[in-house]
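hi! just following up on the protien thing from before. the input was this:
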Amino acid sequence: MLEAALRVIADQGYRALTHRAVAREAGVNLSLTTYYFKDLSQLVAEAFTHYKDALHREAGGYLQAALDYLDRFDKAALADAAVRREIADSLARTMTDYLEHHIREHPQGVAVEMTFFFDLHLDESQRELAHKLRSRFLADFVAVCRRLGTAEPETDAELIMGTLQHLECQAIAVPGQFRPDTISRQLSRLMRALVA
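and the predicted 3d structure came back as:
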């Protein structure tokens, strides 16, 4: 039922979410959705938490790969401009790989994220769920920026997050327009500017 709720939000928008729509999407009796979830707020909260946990597990592998890669460089190496450009390009490729996988394998998840991040009609508890998801990823990017020694890790992490969200939103708004080579070049320019 949680996956069904996410599909309804992704396909029809938050306002289309009802117990009846979730039951129909899940192929279960309506009484089951009302038995397990006292109201739609609880259903939305549990569905988004379910999605958030799965996303953290998936993205964690990409983050760990980036951190492991950064561990290969000591402070002396990080001081070299050519090495920093190589690192920026490598991290851009890792982010591009993640975006490509996420958009290809979980387009509905991306749509759900966009709903939670940008729908102004969500109630305060649902906004808090979106804030927690974003904060978790932001903390990961701050850690990467600190490891890189960027001038302003928190600001730089915000720039990376905003760019990734924009690219995801663009990819689902215009299907078939995601071009990994173009995305990788854009992310490389951003990362090179941050580590310069």
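The chain is about 80% helix and 0% strand.
The longest helix spans residues 40-70.
cheers
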